[in-house]
Amino acid sequence: MSKPRSHFSTAFVAATFCVAATAGAQGRAEVSDSLLRRIHDLDSVMIARSRAVDSIRHSLVRSLPPVDVHRGGLWVRTDSALAPRVRLAVDSVTALVERRGGTVLASRIASHVLVAIRDSVRSPFGMRPAVMLLADTTRRWTVGRVQMPANPSTQQLAAGLTVLVEQLAMQGTDSSLAAWVMVGRAPLSAPTASENAEHYIELATTESAAIRRCRAHDFASCADALGIDSLPGSRLERWYAPQDYRSLLETVAPGREDSAAVVAWMRCRDDRDEIACRAAATALPNDRIPLPLSASARYALVREVLDAGGPGAYDRLLTATGTTRARLAAASGEPLDSTVARWLARVERSRPDRMHVPTALIVASLGWTAAFLSLALIRRTSWA
């Protein structure tokens, strides 16, 4: 009896094991099939998305215009209609680069291809034609871009190309020089009358003890106000006097964590309380005191440096080492005080004239006034 039972038990265990093994194999096969289907589904999604990305890429990227204009280190692609004016504009900009730059600047510009293409832009009444100058790209949307009228003149094209070249000249500049200039462009072009007038207005209207000393030909104070040198003392002491505090506090405020200083700042702003202005100004951290002169003034000084240095001046500014004063002096080829003195004289000579009202506008105003008076008298007579 025991032997048949033992055989039966063995057979039962073997059968159970076979069934379990078969079920496990089928389960593993089903899991493998499920994973394979999942992989195929993901592949299909990736293919569809890559095709969508390629479609968007092709819609944004255009073919290069057919005409190649190349002068010196400046390379521009455009169409046949714009090509004659673009050639003249490129000649003008190339001469500008040669006058103030050098081999380093030329090689930096030569590594890019500028594009002048016809495009359309939005306007209040729909789309209107325009010409776009793009920096080293044929995409519609790019950082370096200048919008031109639909039929730009040679002078307008030269001005737009100059803006792009000035932006390219500052790309890759070391952080210390870029942080000091803080404009993102190299001043290769000559200043306009409006720019000179803005520099004079800034110098004449900014309430700062350092600027007042600078205008009195204290060139050390000029360099300090421009952020070139640092005189002894805190920024507040060097740059501003107590009578300047209220104007200073219009541009900067104490931190919210200093409640007493915030209250003093509000009393200074609203009540013109001099004691409160002094308390709020002296509570400002040293690193929050703003420079008296803006980046626009520093930009104008760099232009004066390049004018003094002549060909290769911008190359020397890029490659020189040391302090900002040393680099500016190396670029100009003269002591910095001489350059600052000439910059100050130029700004002082740029005082804008008082607003001139055209004679035609005066005559037109008188005519309209007479017409309104005549109409009023006629209506009064008819009422009588």
Q: Can you tell me about this structure?
A:
By secondary structure, this protein is of the alpha+beta class. The chain has three domains: 28-60; 67-171; 193-349, no CATH class. It has 17 helices and five strands. It has helices spanning 2-60, 83-100, 103-110, 154-170, 175-181, 193-205, 209-215, 219-225, 235-239, 245-248, 259-271, 274-282, 295-309, 313-319, 324-332, 336-349, 359-383, and strands at 67-71, 74-78, 114-123, 126-135, 145-148. The protein has a five-stranded mixed β-sheet with strand order 1-2-3-4-5. Helix 6 packs across helix 16 (336-349), helix 13 runs parallel beside helix 15 (324-332) and helix 13 crosses helix 16 (336-349). The chain is extended. It starts with a helix and ends with a helix. The model is unreliable at 1-8 (pLDDT under 50).
